[in-house]
Fold this protein.
Amino acid sequence: MSNEVQDKVLAENLLPVPASEKHAEIRRKVREMLSTMKEGEPIELPPLYFHFNRDELAIVNTEPFLYAVEFALHGRHILIEGHTDSQGSDQYNIQLSVKRVERIRKMMHDMGVPDDLISVVGYGEEQASASVAAASEDSQKFRRVDFKVF
């Protein structure tokens, strides 16, 4: 399919025209993944990582976020799961994980994703191993949000 025809088809589906070649590449990959996706089996995307004790992204690799947005723009439901390391109280960590997922939800909404295609849950430190998460070099992997596509 030529780019002009593809752009017309996507426009009819109310999808925005890709803003860059990288965006077009992500759209192509999402369409491929959707064509092979098995019903009832979610697709797990790579996580986004956050700074210690904050809801700001630590590593500026927005590709997982862009994939999640693209899947949602194709009508798929996205579950955003927030996590923290084990430092801090349980209640504080749950609140922080919720702040993280809400930040990502807002960013997705700002990109045109309808709120009814997004679900969020904040786990806090629930899924972090206390002995591993206490080590500073390992705790970064627990300060994250995960994306699941349904």
